[in-house]
Please model this.
Amino acid sequence: MIGAYPPVTAPALTIVGAMTIQNTAKIEWKDHTESIPAFLIIVGIPFAYSIADGLALGFISYAVVKGFSGRTREISWLTYLLAIVLVLYFVFLRSRIGWRSFRLPPARVRATAKVPWLS
Model:
């Protein structure tokens, strides 16, 4: 009930955003395997209108960037598993493509009754 009332939630979200931005000073911006996922999270949250989707973008990009840079041993296999699960989530549940694009079209059914608009 309170979450649907913008005058109450807007100041709280502003304070949380300010507290979050304070931590960007701790990011190693010279290390691209750390800075690219962090930047994608910072940009992804407002563009996706979802904190969860922005964080998911960061998890996916973190695993991809670490993998392509040859630093695969620096993170756990669970991070790679989480990235794969999140990619599958976006492809099959959040996109319009999903399983619907892999279905075969329905077979034509022959009408047995005399229907005027089918004959």
